Amino acid sequence: MKKVILLLQFCLLLSACSYNENMETERITMEPTIVYDNIESRMPGMLMVCGEFAVWTDPFVTEGQSHILDLKEKKEIGKFVNVGNGPKEFITPAFSLSDDKELIVHDMNGDKMAIYAIGNAQEGQEPAGSFFDKKTQGLTRLIKIGNNDFISFDPNSTFPFQTANGHNFGKYPFGNEIDNNYNVSQGNIAYNPDKKIFVYSTISFPYMAAYKKEKDKFELLWEQKGDLDYSISENKIVLDKKKKGSMELALTKDYIVTLQRDYQSDPTNEAKVGRDFTKLPQTLFLYDYKSNLRKIVDLGMPVLRIAADIKNNVVYAIVVNPDFMIAKCELPD
Fold this sequence. Notes:
- The structure is a single chain.
- This protein is an all-beta fold.
- It is built from one helix and 30 strands.
- The strands form eight sheets. A five-stranded mixed sheet has the order 2-27-26-25-24, with no helix packed on it. Strands 3-30-29-28 form a four-stranded antiparallel sheet, with no helix packed on it. A four-stranded antiparallel sheet has the order 4-5-6-7, with no helix packed on it.
- A hairpin with a 4-residue loop joins strand 19 and strand 20.
- It is globular.
């Protein structure tokens, strides 16, 4: 078996297409404010925020996977989206929240999508939803970027990202020749419509890329790759697994925010974390939109999920305190 151990060529990069200014990163500590303390789940799946609404999802139930919260009133006003084969059910639902308060649900194991208008949600009532037959099987992420325009992430395709108008774009961190891109390239995507910047970050190793929208196409703006030990076996990437990349991604007005472990102060071996939520990372990495790491924010408690609204610099997080709760953190300008 051919096995090549490399110090990831990512070290070389902050490449010609990166805008890193080699500035010093500021480390700060902030105490978040708990805004909701009634999350009952074995492990919340996602957290999304838009305006006065937040949505968290529970992948371990078959009924009512998505929970809508009124952040002003600090209460849940409804839950919906069921698992099943019915006309308004999903085999494997995946979620995203648009900046116009629409919850997008697509089926990763079926060809179905729904859009719910949660901006008009009334307590105790399921929001109005429109259902579509749409090819969504295999799409691990799908986000709305404009009027009837979406970006989907399909790690099995030649190009990882596709728009609704048929534009395929993007590159895989290890290139197209690797046989297990579907596994190693899984990550999160987000879009800032004000800046027209689309961001992709990987979960299992440190990689992030930004693309700029020019008319109907996206062009690579920069990519940032961290150092990592890995091996290649039978044309497959075998990750070291002691360190991870960005476990979560959120965009604010001024920052690209990732949930990452600060290995300089917390050298936890990720391979030994498992389902021990007390060992989750406690730090948010704040990058500007030119890829510079400006600040590392220590929240002082384990963080599972993050979400933000691009209209401000507020980040919401599902934290372990010691139960799952939603906390709010107003980032420094």
